[in-house]
Amino acid sequence: MFISGIRGPPLGIVAHAVVDDPAALEAQLDGHSIASGRLRGVRDILSAHPDKRVHTWTDPSRIGSDALRVGLGTLAERGLTFEAWCYSNQLGALARLADDVPMTTMVLDHMGTPVGLAGPHGGQGETEADRARILDDWHAGLVAVAEHRNVHCKLSGLLMPICGFGFHERDAKPSVGEVVDALGPHVLFGIETFGVERCMFASNFPMDKVSVDYEVLWDAFLQIIANAGLDATQQAALLAGNAAAFYRLEER
Known about the structure:
With 252 residues, the chain is α/β, with parallel strands linked by helices.
């Protein structure tokens, strides 16, 4: 209500639902649809890590469960998308999930959150060798997921403290140039792997607010794709067009 009072009703809504409880899912989707005709998809947190020092958000077995696959089939029948947030150690499982439900359109949130990619967090990324392994495993996981054309990728969330860049520990927020240097290679790998047509930028605010200013983040995204030589059409797709198409948004 607060947001709609400022800008009008949202063009599309991604809601929460218990996807791996088929009976409850039907009722929840009915309720969401009655509440708003703008329901476009469902988001669920699947993030789980074998190291207890890393926060596990849910039962790690869920991502491989038959119940989740049934629920994802229900989303497809209703023309709804699924937003999956998992850690990079789960990307292989996500690839198998995508293979089992090819009619369900998904988006991988935050590029699969590689814990400890750039520095220590929860016992991950403690050494240069650790970080190199995390990078290699993450890349392999992204490639595996990208093989499934029903999965898109959100270029977002890499400045969460869990990824280890450490900007949240500084007195001053990073500059555009620092963010470009930190994120550029990773963003471009995502675009190269999934293709421009299956990628979209997102801010992950307010969660990323601890690490970077909003305007700085978007200026960095713009600079990354401009430096890479992407043309105006490709840039517009990454910044807005792909998201509008994915969520079936209509202008007010």
